[in-house]
Amino acid sequence: MMVRYGLTINSNRFIFILSSLITAWSLSPCRAQNNPSGFSDSPEFIDPVKPEALDFLSADLSIPREKAMQAYEKKDYTIAARYFLFLLHHKYDDPISLYSLASCYAQLGKPEPAAKTLLQLLNCGFSDVQLLLNDPNFNRVRNSPPFDGLMRNVKAWGENLGELLWVESRSLTRCRLKLPDSYDPSKSYPLVIGLHGWCNKCEDFMSVAGAMRKPHFLFAAPETPYLLPSDIVRRKPCYSWDFYVEDKALWQRADPLVADNIINVVKEIKQRYRINRVYLLGHSQGVSYAYLTAMTHPDLINGVVCFAGYLPTEILSEDLLRNAAPRVRVYIAHGKQDRSVDPEESRKARKILEKLDFSVVYQEFEGGHELPAPAVEDAQKWIERIEETEAKAPLQNDPQIQ
Fold it and tell me: Is 315 within 8 Å of 349 (Cβ atoms)?
């Protein structure tokens, strides 16, 4: 089992399929397709003026998805297929539902619908040929003419794909920025960079600034580099600071690039505004990249605010952390009832950092995997206390700033 910055990754078939689906989807030319109806196969039967005509837009799909997964785990493939079909009526290019539905048909001994479902998956960008050729869930129908014909075509197509390479590239990304109400261009201000969690987006994270009480600093929220398939329950764009691959060598290549992107945000804003000190505020997955960026750039980042996340010690060596300790202050907060990221992760981070002589403030609050306004205000006060001290003295980690 591996922990990948807010997600527990089990080395089993389902997670392997999930990573393959997401990687394939990221290469897909038709990934924006959606079923606009979800309630009728024929437009003639839709009455657009009825109040319930738009109900499908806000339908709660979490329950049918949970029932589909439960039925699949119990090997009740008919019931599972029923729920996956329902989900696909709402979003017919959902990769998890498509793959799972094809698997259900295979387990039921239905080669034609299994092949048809996989063909739709392939048309939407899925490209893991080896998974399709070797997944034992399709063994029951693998030798049937319809399925065998599809697999022959898939194999021939895969042989022409060549090797998959991941190449570093430069591109522009959006970033939201909010100035303090009392902003004066003749004065210097602190800058807080907000790093949202997995499957969120920068516009949503600007609500953190809205939860603060008249902050005297600039607040920016950059977008992540990776767009994942929209979650069928949330049904909105899903952004991530990392991408799903099991190759740790790719993690080691990709993570420093993310830190560089965050530093580029700092440099861009400094070119436009007078900035004195910089803080990173991360939530969940964003915490790991706040730590990574601050600890590898202690000359540019003065403090980190970490809500419910992990300290990525697998890529942050003790020597590197020790070097950053005199210059980077740390504020850690975690909801006591968090069921997404165990509060013990924040407690462990505190112990590690304090042992290395970091100035650490630690708080736990009543709540789950969230950013309640009182907790955000406490973090704001921590930043403002540092700013009050720094206004009187040169930057140094004062242990009395608690």
Answer: no
